[in-house]
Specification:
Strand content: 15-25%
Shape: globular
Radius of gyration: 14 Å
Order of helices and strands: EHEHE
CATH class: Alpha Beta
Helix content: 25-40%
Strand order of the largest sheet: 1-2-3
Bound molecules: iron/sulfur cluster
Distance between the termini: 51 Å
Number of helices: 2
């Protein structure tokens, strides 16, 4: 029997957010300023690609606080053929 698992994962780049929802996973860190270093995040995505991860969701804290970093990570996902999406609270909308 051939197993064809679709591997999807959530990726928390930081716990920083401009909103403080009680239910948020970032609440455990006090909505602090914990952020991964960008080169480390890129290495993890390379490792995920090697592990056949097919989809990454950038999520809590608020990913778009670090727009240029997230753009870099989304581009890296595209290079690896990994579907990516960003879950945002929409703070940037007018
Ligand atoms: S990351 Fe999302 S769920 Fe968490 S505090 Fe911010 S808006 Fe709320």
């Amino acid at each position: 029997m051939i197993m064809n698992h679709i591997r999807k994962t959530a990726f928390g780049y930081s716990t920083q957010c401009n909103i403080k929802c009680e239910h948020c996973v970032a609440a455990e860190d006090g909505y602090g300023h914990i952020k991964m270093e960008l080169p480390r995040a890129r290495d993890i995505i390379d490792e995920m690609a090697a592990a056949n991860v097919k989809a990454i969701s950038f999520t809590a804290g608020e990913p778009l606080i670090f727009l240029s970093d997230i753009l870099s990570l989304v581009r890296l996902c595209k290079k690896h053929g990994i579907y990516s999406r960003v879950v945002s609270n929409g703070f940037w909308a007018t």
